[in-house]
Structures are given as structure tokens and as C-alpha cells.
Specification:
- Helix 1 runs parallel beside helix 2 and helix 1 packs parallel to helix 7.
- The relative contact order is 0.17.
- With 302 residues, this protein is an alpha/beta fold.
- The protein has seven helices and 20 strands.
- It has two domains: 186 residues, FAD/NAD(P)-binding domain; 94 residues, FAD/NAD(P)-binding domain, CATH 3.50.50.60.
- Helix content is 29%, strand content 27%.
- The strands form six sheets. Strands 3-2-1-7-20 form a five-stranded parallel β-sheet. The chain has a five-stranded parallel β-sheet with strand order 9-16-10-11-12, covered by helices on one side. Strands 4-5-6 form a three-stranded antiparallel β-sheet.
- The two termini are 32 Å apart.
- The structure holds flavin-adenine dinucleotide.
């Protein structure tokens, strides 16, 4: 059984499957989405661990049950016999009866000078992940999407000093009064840069020359699934996100998904949970096939 992607989703699935005793292989290119974050939060019993340490512990556990982990990138994946053929960038090939795609997503940031350099440090996207660590500081929220007003209202929970940056004329009267009612300040105009001082974010530059002092900026990135392999396999999608059932089975028999590749809302603990759920469903599917094969062989024998 091959898992493509060894983040929280893929490794959690690998652990459950390795314990269920099919042969397990994880191929992982080693770039989990939260790699740049120094700490991971909100994972019960693992709060504050570094993302790398979580995965390192997971790899040891999977190997402890005989699972194999290959560092590499899957470049081709397609039907082969009654299962799938898997080709890695370095030329290694594997075959598998079922495949779990847990390749995650990538965050596309707005192209504002200085923003990407501060990503996962003092440019953040998820207040649930890192809001507590920046509580009571001077927070900014870069807006401009319909969801940004609600996002600012949520970020407001972590500080009484929140400014929402939006293009002029963007907000409705109702939105303005909702923001004012919770003391969220407004900065209207075009953001032209993120400023730093001594390796800390210190402000936001505006096109009219204003510099607005801030300690931290929250920005909602565009979430893009790493779904090349799924597209090539012909998995049905909805706005880029693979269509799947509750257990992670896609519209292509034998192809399963877990974690951020199909669920943009999945946090680490959710991705791990999905990996576990999907692993049990895959195992049951393999057993069903084994039963069918055994019955057929048994019928032939008599
Ligand atoms: C800056 C930042 C901080 C975050 N902090 C938190 C936090 O504190 N708490 C929290 O719960 N969540 C946090 N998150 C969200 C968290 O990163 C995701 O929930 C989690 O990584 C999803 O796990 P996953 O297994 O689905 O994907 P990932 O962890 O992204 O793992 C996918 C893996 O697949 C591999 N891969 C991709 N394509 C291929 C291929 N073709 N072949 C082989 N391997 C491949 C990648 O290299 C990667 O290792 C944060 C996100 C960001 C961006």
C-alpha cells in the first residue's frame, strides 16, 4: 500500500495500516505546509512541538511496525494491472493495490513586497495556530476579500488593537458599524509593503506614504491543493478540491485522499484524524477484495 505524502495525514494513515499488517510504503518529498513554523499548536498532547519533531516521531512509529519511508517525489501515478504504478523522480518504481494521496496544499500569498519573507514568523494566516502567541500585540489584517471582515472579527479575539487594511470604498455601511462596534480600526488604501526592523515586522507601508505601525500581520492566503496526481488520475473535483466520501474514497476506485489535499480546513490534528479514518476504510476495502479473491479461488478448487 503506497501513501504519497508523509505529512500528518499520510503518516497517520501509514501508522494505522502498518499496524493492520499490509506492506506499507510512504513516499514523501519532505515539504509539509507548516515547515516554516517553529512550533505547532492545537494538537492535544503535542501542543508546542515543532512540526519537524512531530513527523520525526511519526516516522519512528511507522518504521517500528515495518513501514517503509522513501524520501522522494512521485511524478507519475497511473493504473497498472489491477492496481497502480508509482514512478518517483529518481526513477524508482513501485506498484500498489490502492493509493492514498496526502500531498497537502500550498499557500499562495498576495504579492506585497516583504510579505513572503515574514511568512510563518510575523506574517500569519491562522489565529487558531499562532494567535495566542501574539495575543495583545498590535495586529493587522490584510483584507480585500469578502471574507476578510469576518476574519478581522475573529482575529480581534486575540487583541484589542486590531486594524483592518482594505481598499478604499470596499466596505458596506453595515460592515463599518460591525467593525466599529468591536473597536477594530480601519486603514483604507493600497498596501505597498511590509516593513521590518531588526528582523521583526514593524509596520505596513501604504501607497500614500503612510506607515502604520504593527507587530504582526494576518493575511488569508489562497489555498491551492497539490492535486496534479489526482487530476491526471481523472479524480472528479469541485473547484480544484477532490470529490470524496466521508472516508476519503475519491471518484476513481482505489484512489483515496486525506488531509489538506482535499480538505483546506484540516489542521494537523484533523489531517491526522482523516489519515486514520481513511486507513481503516482502505484496509476494509483490501479485505473485501481478498474475500472475493479467496471465494473465487475456493470455488475453483472444488
Ligand atoms: C505557517 C503555517 C503554520 C501552521 N501552523 C499550524 C499549527 O500550529 N497547528 C495546526 O494544527 N496546523 C497548522 N498549520 C496547518 C498544517 O500545516 C496543516 O494542517 C497540515 O500540514 C496538513 O497536513 P497534510 O498531511 O494534509 O499535508 P502536509 O503536512 O503539507 O504534508 C504533505 C506532504 O506531502 C508531500 N508531497 C507533496 N507532493 C508530493 C509528491 N508528489 N510526492 C511525494 N510527496 C509529496 C509534501 O512534501 C509534504 O511532506 C499551519 C500551516 C502553515 C502554513
Amino acid at each position: 500500500m503506497v501513501m504519497v505524502g508523509g505529512g500528518a495525514a499520510g503518516m497517520s494513515a501509514a501508522l494505522v495500516l502498518a499496524r493492520a499488517r499490509p506492506k506499507v510504503l510512504v513516499v514523501d518529498s519532505g515539504e509539509p505546509r507548516n515547515a516554516l513554523a517553529s512550533h505547532m499548536h492545537g494538537f492535544l498532547s503535542r501542543d508546542g512541538l515543532s512540526p519537524a519533531e512531530l513527523l520525526s516521531l511519526g516516522r519512528s512509529e511507522v518504521k517500528g511496525y515495518g513501514g517503509e519511508i522513501v524520501v522522494g517525489s512521485v511524478t507519475e501515478l497511473g493504473p497498472s494491472g489491477s492496481g497502480f504504478g508509482v514512478l518517483l523522480a529518481d526513477g524508482q518504481r513501485f506498484s500498489t493495490r490502492r493509493v492514498l494521496i496526502a500531498t497537502g496544499l500550498h499557500d499562495e500569498l498576495p504579492t506585497i513586497p516583504g510579505l513572503a519573507e515574514r511568512w510563518a514568523r510575523d506574517v500569519l494566516h491562522c489565529p487558531y495556530c499562532h494567535g495566542y502567541e501574539v495575543r495583545d500585540q498590535q495586529l493587522g489584517v490584510l483584507g480585500g476579500s469578502p471574507e476578510s471582515v469576518r476574519y478581522a472579527q475573529i482575529v480581534r479575539q486575540w487583541s484589542t488593537d486590531v486594524l483592518l487594511f482594505v481598499p478604499a470604498g470596499f466596505l458596506t455601511t453595515l460592515q463599518r458599524s460591525e467593525l466599529a462596534a468591536r473597536s477594530i480600526g480601519l486603514v483604507e488604501g493600497v498596501v505597498t509593503g511590509i516593513l521590518t526592523d531588526a528582523d521583526h515586522l514593524c509596520g505596513v507601508a501604504m501607497d500614500d506614504g503612510r506607515v502604520i505601525l504593527r507587530d504582526v500581520v494576518f493575511v488569508p492566503p489562497r489555498l491551492v491543493p497539490n492535486n496534479d496526481l489526482l487530476i491526471r488520475l481523472g479524480v472528479m473535483e469541485d473547484a480544484g478540491w477532490a470529490v470524496k466520501d466521508d472516508a476519503g474514497q475519491t471518484t476513481v476506485p482505489g484512489v483515496w485522499v486525506a488531509g489538506n489535499v482535499a480538505n483546506p480546513r484540516a489542521q494537523v490534528i484533523t489531517a491526522a484524524g482523516e489519515g486514520s479514518t481513511t486507513a481503516m476504510a482502505i484496509n476494509a476495502d483490501l479485505v473485501d477484495q481478498d474475500v472475493r479473491n479467496a471465494v473465487q479461488a475456493f470455488t475453483h478448487d472444488i
